[in-house]
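Researcher: Go.
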Amino acid sequence: MSVGASAINPQLLEILACPKDKGGLIYFADEDALYNPRLQMRYEVRQGIPVMLIDQAVVVTQVEHERLMAKARQENLKLNF
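Model: Structure:
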């Protein structure tokens, strides 16, 4: 985890879903982000608190999506459910 990154409570992470499609998310702890690969939407995590507001999510580019998915594969990160 990078300096300044803060972990989400594991019990909370188990039940978090994307507010838009209600699906699972990939947690990138070192980037303070939750990612929905189906919609290519990234949600920020601030001080361990996920900001799960659709209007504050960032729709990532195809290049960023590919980077995140490669990182998830490399680090064996999976959808939370």
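Model: The first strand starts at residue 26 and ends at 28.
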